[in-house]
Amino acid sequence: MEASDIVLNVIFYVLAAAAIAGAVAVAVSKNIVRSAFALLAVLFSAAALYAVMKADFIAAAQVLIYVGGILVLIIFAVMLTHRITDVKLSNESTPGPAAFCACLCLLFSLVVVILFTARWQRESDEVVVRSGGNEVFLRQYQGDGSTGLAFGGAAFEGSVVLGVRVDRPNGDVKYVTFTAVSGKEKPKTVVIPFQLGVTKGALSDLAEGDWHWSAVLSGADGEVAKAESPAARDFTVNRGITKTVARALAGPYLLAFEVVSVLLLAALVGAAFLARKEVRE
Amino acid sequence: MIFTRHPLEHMLLLSAIVFCCGVYTILTRKNAVSILMGVELVLNAANINFVAFSQYTRIGGVHGNVFTIFVILLAAAEAAVALAIIIGMYQNFGKVDVDQADNMKE
Fold first, then answer.
1. pTM over cut 0.90
2. Is A65 within 8 Å of chain B by CB?
3. What is the ipTM of this complex?
């Protein structure tokens, strides 16, 4: 484990503890002002957690909208509440055993599902491409001085052509074509080096997933199979997600985005209508 | 490659705990503003899940983040409407106690 990972882990668990403490305080605090400020702690910890999870744009949106908008609204409502210092009036709750047991059961079932029932598996780094009778695996390879794509298979029938597109961290695109001609030979592994244009010393600084590849395999019978590097996610994340989120919002989610903006307008008008002073005749 | 960062389960557990705190708040509070706070906790738990899964999936990688933005926007709309309703309640009942707003019973 590297030092940066340890630091990130420590930050993550500290923030998680802060979020949980704040959430519990919101749930059980006797004073509504304390509840509101505990909610502030939860929202800020959540924003920092998003930053740790490399969702930088979401962290900014969380701080701007949640903390800057919603929470300020809530705190205003709390402060304008009549006689807030009076505990019995301000934050009355009915903590019955039924509600507590219900929440405990809910938590228990969630924990069981998360830890035991569901299988969260990370996808393997190895990608298998099948084309015709050929089965070829592709794996990212990082050795001393060379970074590349390991490519091999149990048996090739005739010749296999592998075209690889490599996206470099600086945005360059490079194409590599590799041809394997073999009969039913012994399994072999070929490393296609990607000349990333970095010196030997700098290569170790390249994080796994800093580059991204996609491969097209075409067999002798003309059948074509495609594969993509498992680290595609890391590739987008390492460059910051703001651009990718913007593309997604302006592309496949454009209609949803517009609908949400209409809904916000409707909510604004509706809130103004509801909160208006009643005119008595 | 050994994955050394905090596992996905820990983020899901965190969001589960926050979610249960929110549900408990909604169930037990009488003050409407406190109930609104519980709803915000529940929405934040969902957001943490979205971002966590978005980080841990290969395909797309960003769709969970987009959904988080939508949830945040809807939470803003929800907070505005909820506070307007609370103000209306205060004008009608002189209190923001949800137990008192039972006019429809009669």
1. no
2. yes
3. 0.89
Within 13 A of A109's CA, how many CA atoms are on the CB side? 7
Partner-chain contact A272 B84, CB within 8 Å: yes
Counted across chains A and B, CB pairs separated by less than 8 A come out at 233
Distance of CA A41 to the CA centre of its chain: 22
How far apart are the C-alpha atoms of A190 and A178, rounded to whole Å?
10
**Residue B66 tokens, joined:** 């987009």
Structural tokens at position A277: 């002073």
A90 touches chain B (CB under 8 A): yes
pLDDT in tens, chain A (281 residues): 567 778 888 888 999 999 999 999 998 888 888 889 999 999 999 999 998 887 888 999 999 999 888 988 888 888 876 665 565 555 666 777 888 899 999 999 999 988 888 776 654 556 666 666 666 666 655 554 455 566 666 555 566 666 766 665 556 666 666 666 555 444 445 555 554 443 333 333 334 445 566 667 666 566 666 666 654 444 444 556 787 788 888 888 899 999 999 999 999 999 888 877 766 55
Rg value, chain B, Cα: 18
Q: CB neighbours of A112 closer than 8 A, spacing ≥ 6?
A: none
Domain boundaries, chain A: 3-87+251-275, 127-237
User: What is the number of alpha carbons within 13 Å of residue A255 lying toward its C-beta?
Assistant: 1
What is the distance between the alpha carbons of residues A136 and A182, in angstroms, rounded to a whole number?
13
For B61, which of A115, A120, A236 is closest by C-beta distance? A236
CA B93 distance to own-chain centroid = 26
* CATH T-level assignment (fold) for domain A127-237: Immunoglobulin-like (2.60.40)
